[in-house]
Structures are given as C-alpha cells and as structure tokens.
Specification:
194 residues, alpha/beta, Rossmann fold, five-stranded parallel beta sheet, two-stranded antiparallel ribbon, 7 helices, globular
C-alpha cells in the first residue's frame, strides 16, 4: 500500500485515524486467508467496480462475488453492484447481490430495469453536487420514474464515481469495504461506523 498516493493516500490515513484496518487483498491466497474475518462482519460495502465495467468478472473477482453472495451478509453497493454494467440492464456475468445500492448523482438504468434491478436491492440516490441541468443534458436513453417527491429523471450514466455517502446514524457493527483505493470506500466505511 506504500504506492498509494494523492486522495487515496489521504483517505487511507483517515481510515487509520478512525481506527479501521485496511488489508490489501490482491490475490486469491490473500482472499482465502481473510475470508473468515470477512464472514464475521455485519455489513459489506461493495465499491470494487463502478460504472466503467465492460466485461464479466473473472478469476479472483468472480470468486469474491460468489463468496460474498453466499455469505448471507447484507451488502451496500456504491453506485452499482460489482459485476453490473451501467450500459445494459442484463448482468454481464456473476455480480454481487446488494441489499441496498447508494448510486451517485442519478440512478443507472440497470438499477431500475429488469433483470438488473433484482441485483441492486433498495436504491438510494446520493447527491454529489452535480447540477441537475448537467444530468439533464447527458446523451443516451432516459426514462422517468415516479417517486414520492415526484418524477425522477434517470440518465444512463452518471458523471464520476466519487463523492460522499450519507452516514448511517442508527448504529454500528463490524463492516468490510471492498474497493479501489479512493474516497468511495472511506466514505462508505465512515457511514457504516458513525
């Protein structure tokens, strides 16, 4: 983890100050070694892949998705459950089955259209500060959803994959966050332990 720099380094240091341990799981041997610890968690935060995934999970990532799904532990996915493509509602292979997905800026089509919607659980849209007119001007297919607060526009892709997640103020347990070294995992972990 010595090679981690910039915002990722800052967020890694913040996690350390919060008393959270970050373990680099870069191969199947490390995954097998730490899965017993992971299986004792109360919540898994999934932030491995975002909207850019174009091909099915393979190797260790496919194993991780299968193990997480078999664990029975609730999963909160960031933006999209790992293994889903933002480009189509059909899963492109094995994907993590989330209990809840906190999607950034706007819901993605696979979160609200079958069969992908079945992998996403409850959907929460996190405002990350993108002005509505920017989202409204995105090219691509759109649908309108009727929500409790009125119509909600859906853009096929959101702009960016970083931003704050709302903190859960209701309690804490043991959580694990999977993801690329960025602010997403930090914010997800912060929300889970506040």
């Amino acid at each position: 983890m010595a090679a981690i720099k910039g915002d990722a380094r800052l967020n890694l240091e913040i996690l350390g100050r919060l008393g959270l341990t970050v373990v680099d799981i870069s191969d199947e041997q490390a995954w097998d070694l730490h899965f017993s610890e992971i299986s004792q968690c109360d919540l898994i935060v999934d932030a491995i892949f975002g909207t850019g995934l174009k091909s099915a999970l393979a190797g260790m990532m496919e194993t991780v998705a299968a193990d997480v799904n078999a664990s029975g532990i609730p999963v909160v996915a960031v933006d999209l459950p790992t293994g889903m493509s933002a480009d189509r509602p059909e899963p492109i292979g094995e994907c993590i089955h989330a209990s809840m997905t906190v999607t950034l800026a706007a819901p993605k089509l696979p979160l609200v259209l079958p069969p992908g919607e079945g992998q996403a659980g409850s959907i929460v849209v996190a405002d990350i500060g993108i002005p509505p007119e920017v989202i409204e001007n995105l090219a691509g297919p759109r649908i309108e959803l009727l929500g409790a607060a009125g119509p909600v526009g859906i853009a096929e892709r959101a702009l960016g994959e970083h931003g704050p997640m709302p903190a859960d103020q209701d309690g804490a347990g043991k959580q694990i966050g999977f993801g690329q070294p960025s602010g997403i995992v930090h914010e997800g972990a912060r929300g889970a332990v506040v």
